[in-house]
């Protein structure tokens, strides 16, 4: 199974959020659960940002 998640945030990898942060955990979850994943930057324009993609092997 494959999916993509568009985001308006700039491209970067997972980070360790502080315990009080209200965001910043989605990439950590994707990295923990997906068999393969990555982040692609989008071209500047009306909707700049990134696309997170992930693939899960169906077992």
UniProtKB/TrEMBL annotation:
Region (Disordered): 1-21
Top-level lineage group: Bacteria
Biased segments, Pro residues type: 8-17
Family matches, as InterPro entries: HATPase_C_sf
Name of the protein in its database record: ATP-binding protein
